[in-house]
Automatic annotation (TrEMBL):
Taxonomy of the source species: Eukaryota, Viridiplantae, Streptophyta, Embryophyta, Tracheophyta
Annotated function: Invertase that cleaves sucrose into glucose and fructose.
GO molecular function, one term: sucrose alpha-glucosidase activity
Gene3D superfamilies membership: 1.50.10.10
Pfam families associated with the record: Glyco_hydro_100
Full protein name: Alkaline/neutral invertase
Similarity comment text for this entry: Belongs to the glycosyl hydrolase 100 family.
GO biological process, any: sucrose catabolic process
Catalytic activity: Hydrolysis of terminal non-reducing beta-D-fructofuranoside residues in beta-D-fructofuranosides
Alphabetical keyword list: Carbohydrate metabolism, Glycosidase, Hydrolase
Catalytic activity, EC: 3.2.1.26
Length: 618
């Protein structure tokens, strides 16, 4: 059996010569490296060379067998005539030193030319689209002599598969946690839309797309249900927070019970569920190359119904979405009411994903126009008013108040005395981030991890702002990462403020749960953001920290303490998204092309054309 692969090397100089290796021929010409492998075990060399060429700025291409017939006739020698020892006497490859992936952004090196069209991440090469699998540590690999995966990876896959939920014999999702030691199940045995996203990513990267497709279709069916809380009817496009499969062993039937917020703590409908569904639909499409699902009439209608809810006109003077407390991952009262960064970031991401998937038919064009206008206004608003760095903090510190008219600098009438004391020490001279909330006379200066990471992935953040967010993480590593990645919010609120903001919530005490707790699931978002900004070394360092304890502690939901040192006091063990988050992070670092499923590139074509007003004169 013979394997062929070529790499087109850019930004390198390769001397013209032929290397001869036992049972292998490496053909080197200017700008091209070719490898012909004649045995299974030697095929593993392809993996290492893929990564080596990638780090050198090269491009991996699958070679056509016909391309090698000429090569073999002139340069390929019999395997018995090849001797590895002769390499010692051969001239060496001389490659110009170029910045590696650790030093350059993915957008700069363009992943070996696999980015095309408007969004480079939109068209990133994915092995899933051609039937392959992720990296070389996935247990589902069909290669007979696959390299042994890390023991923790095997344990994670086993735990993830134990969480699968089946409906009429088909897997439709993963339950939130499989903690057999917990006496109270509560709703942790349900399939949550937001919780399933990292599980779906892991399955997609491992070539198991059917599970994700089943989930997308099943939740789409639930969207059409009539949704009532007490006597009030929810919008038609609302997606459920979660659903549960009920098995009747006597009748041998399966039924589904969905929760749209009527059973949730606080009775708050999840604003983010619809956004996560759109984001996951795009990830499925990019990973598999199957556009038929997204283009089906059912999915097109589902996208439009979600957009109808969030693009409807009202009394809002801002392009951001007005939200209640507890409407997102932070699903308890934590003072995020108003315009939380977490919702705005994934809202922006969902709009861009919907823009790429909507058909340009009569109904689709109307929504596309509304999306473009909203994206333009939202990006300006967020980059201008939510961004905080050392310079902007100094400006706010010197704000004048009670300004009137359109010339006002302090447009939200924020009182400088409301700036918390901790912020002056926390803000480094190098770095910045999107603050938690901006509304009249109020700025929430807390750090929210998910909102900032998705600001990077969706390109809501400018390249300079994305770099500054990564700088902040490095500068404030102990505060934001500590001993277990990653703080969901920083800092914790405590004492009198905790009583007022949380209503004395016993679960959200200081440095616990949503109030400054450390959540391993955030690791995959950090990793994707690091790869996109060309800083994978940050993700590797965080992953190494997580590997020290995650498996040993039983995959907890969250950790407590300033440094994330203690397993959360009410944390569930074998939390599915902690497991999946680790796997996704691991596979992204092994194969950075996977980041294309969740990372977008700036699309200048979406910016509206600026036209002169009727009153314009020369």
């Amino acid at each position: 059996m013979v394997f062929y692969r070529t790499w087109r090397v850019k930004r390198t100089t390769v001397l013209c010569h032929t290397l001869r290796v036992k049972r292998t021929t490496v053909l080197c010409r200017t700008g091209v490296v070719a490898l012909v492998v004649t045995d299974w075990w030697l095929s593993k060399l392809l993996i290492g060379l893929d990564r080596w060429i990638f780090l050198c700025g090269g491009e991996m291409e699958e070679a056509r067998e016909s391309d090698f017939r000429k090569v073999e006739s002139n340069s390929y020698m019999d395997a018995d005539d090849l001797d590895l020892s002769r390499l010692l006497d051969k001239p060496r490859l001389i490659i110009e030193r170029k910045r590696s992936l650790d030093e350059r952004s993915i957008s700069e090196i363009s992943i070996a030319g696999n980015f095309r069209n408007v969004e480079s991440y939109e068209n990133m090469f994915s092995p899933m689209a051609t039937g392959g699998r992720s990296g070389w540590n996935t247990p589902a690999s069909s290669t007979p002599h696959a390299l042994e995966p890390h023991p923790m990876v095997n344990e994670a896959w086993d735990a993830l598969r134990r969480s699968l939920v089946y409906f009429r014999g088909l897997p439709v999702g993963t339950m939130a946690a499989v903690d057999n030691q917990s006496e109270e199940v509560l709703n942790y045995d349900q399939v949550f839309v937001r919780d399933f996203v990292p599980s779906a990513m892991a399955f997609l990267m491992n070539g198991e797309s059917d599970i994700v497709k089943n989930f997308l279709l099943k939740t789409l069916q639930l969207q059409s249900w009539e949704k009532r809380i007490d006597r009030f009817k929810l919008g038609e496009g609302a997606m459920p927070a979660s659903f549960k499969v009920l098995h009747d062993p006597i009748r041998k039937t399966d039924t589904i019970a969905a929760d749209f917020g009527e059973s949730a703590i606080g009775r708050v409908a999840p604003i983010d569920s619809g956004f996560w569904w759109i984001i996951l639909l795009r990830a499925y499409t990019k990973s598999t190359g199957d556009i038929s699902l997204a283009e089906s009439s059912e999915c097109q209608k589902g996208i439009r119904l979600i957009l109808s809810l969030c693009l409807s006109e009202g009394f809002d003077t801002f392009p951001t979405l007005l939200c209640a407390d507890g409407c997102s991952m932070i699903d308890r009262r934590m003072g995020i009411y108003g315009y939380p960064i977490e919702i705005q970031s994934i809202f922006f991401m969902a709009l861009r994903c919907a823009f790429s998937m909507l058909k340009h038919d009569t109904e689709g064009k109307e929504f596309i126009e509304r999306i473009v206008k909203r994206l333009h206004a939202l990006s300006y608003h967020m980059r201008t008013y939510f961004w905080l760095d050392f310079q902007q903090l100094n400006i706010i510190y010197r704000y004048k108040t009670e300004e009137y008219s359109h010339t006002a600098v302090n447009k939200f009438n924020v009182i400088p005395d409301s700036i918390p004391d901790w912020l002056f020490d926390f803000m480094p001279t190098r770095g910045g981030y999107f603050i938690g909330n901006v509304s009249p006379a109020r700025m929430d200066f807390r750090w929210f991890a998910l909102g900032n990471f998705f600001a990077i992935l969706s390109c809501l953040a400018t390249p300079e702002q994305s770099t500054a967010i990564m700088d902040l993480i490095e500068e404030r590593w102990e505060e934001l990462v500590g001993e277990m990645p990653l703080k969901i919010i920083y800092p914790a609120i405590e004492a009198h403020e905790w009583r007022i903001v949380t209503g004395c919530d016993p679960k959200n005490t200081r440095w616990s749960y949503h109030n400054g707790g450390s959540w391993p699931v955030l690791l995959w978002m950090l990793t994707a953001a690091c790869i996109k900004t060309g800083r994978p070394q940050i993700a590797r360092k965080a992953l190494e920290l997580a590997e020290v304890r995650l498996l040993k502690d039983g995959w907890p939901e969250y950790y407590d303490g300033k440094l994330g040192r203690y397993v959360g006091k009410q944390a569930r063990k074998f939390q599915t998204w902690s497991i999946a988050g680790y796997l996704v992070s691991k596979m992204m670092l092994e194969d950075p092309s996977h980041v294309g499923m969740v990372a977008l590139e700036e699309d200048k074509a979406m910016k509206p054309v600026l036209r002169r007003s009727a009153s314009w004169t020369c």
